[in-house]
Amino acid sequence: MLKFVFMVLLMTLCSNSWLSVQLSLFLGSLLFSVLCLSGFGEFQYGWSLGVDWIGYLLILLSFWILALALGASEGVKRGFTFSGVFLIVNLFLLLSLILTFSCLDYLLFYICFESSLVPTMILILGWGYQPERLQAGVYMLFYTLFGSLPLLISFLSLYNLGGTMVMSLSECPELEFSLSLIWYVASVVAFVVKLPMYLVHLWLPKAHVEAPVAGSMILAGVLLKLGGYGLIRVCPLFSKVGVSLSWVWISLGLVGGIIVSLICLRQGDMKSLIAYSSVAHMGLVLCGLMLCSWWGVCGAVAVMVGHGLCSSGLFCLANVSYERLGSRSLFISKGLLSFMPTLCLWWFALSVGNMAAPPTLNLLGEVSLIVGVISWSSWAGLGVIFLSFLSAAYTLYLFSLSQHGKYFSSVFSCCSGEVREYLVLMLHWLPLNILILVGYMFVT
């Protein structure tokens, strides 16, 4: 892992060249995939760093999404608005993500987990679109800090009682149920805020709407996966309490996902609708992680990777139309099929992926999650049915309202897309549909 950490640090030295950084990121993803696939398993590299198959997938996703996010941020590059600083901030965000997904020590994991907040806030405050980005940054900061302090106290208590913070050696001592419950909630709350779970999700739409396109793509593609990854690492410590309280989380995930899906159907902002759809998808991921079953965990990881590629591509598409029309409103920028017809195919392809249609990776993940939830309770299957139906409903709402209808813009002719934009969209869509061919990585 250290060679990739130093590789990212060396990329900051060539922050004047966007092409060099992008090619280095693609090269890093290629080298990382070859290294791990040559002997797939669990690797420990020293300095409390290591990677298993979940960390491997998420680190690879981080490299890939960040390279595509830089490709979509042509506005920052052409505008000369501190483009070198923009690259450095993104690279430090990637560094914090790599360290988070490869930590084998709980305290180091906590430090790296929280350090990703700083570059994200700088992206939102420095390169956001509107003055409301200050409010979005404050929302994000306080929601994260609210959940992070109990998590730190939990890890320090674990060291005090167990004598170690190494993930493979730590275990929660036997305590009374009430104390175990308090400890469990304190440990989980930081991750469900970052996921985010319904009821603690209000920071996400604000952050997405105000963030630049690179911030939105990284936030949806990778940062939301920090919550799921943290739950995978922490929940085994509290297996008894977790099993007894699984009905609470599964209920919140299903009911919250249905409510948020209904909220999606009344959104008028493209980015806001895509952001709320992320909350609905993460509700299903929460159900899978709290099932405490192999089907649930494998399905949750598959959905996290698939959603990272699909949602990031949708934010890129929303930015393409925003750069040409100057508005993200679905009521102003409708009828895109009339003057950007070639982009309609990409809207359709990524919308199909968002509703988990074949042959996307989301289909494999949602089938695994549905099997896991129904095997846990047949009544919970009813909630999954409504969630899947509403997922298709708000995705079709987004596609039909944006592509069809009479447009009210004064633009009668515009560029239907650049080669760079088509390349970025292709590199979102291709892994999303090819990874299902190596589905054994997610279910073994």
From TrEMBL:
A Pfam family this chain is assigned to: Proton_antipo_M
Domain of life: Eukaryota
Membrane topology designation: Multi-pass membrane protein
NADH:ubiquinone oxidoreductase chain 4 N-terminal domain segment(s): 1-100
Sequence intervals crossing the membrane: 21-41, 53-72, 79-101, 107-129, 141-161, 181-204, 211-232, 244-266, 273-296, 302-322, 329-349, 369-401, 422-443
Tagged with keyword NAD: yes
UniProt keyword annotation of rRNA-binding present: no
GO cellular component annotations of the record: mitochondrial membrane
EC number: 7.1.1.2
Main localization, broad class: mitochondrion
A biological-process GO annotation: electron transport coupled proton transport
Family: Belongs to the complex I subunit 4 family.
Protein's recorded name: NADH-ubiquinone oxidoreductase chain 4
Organism of this sequence: Palaemon carinicauda
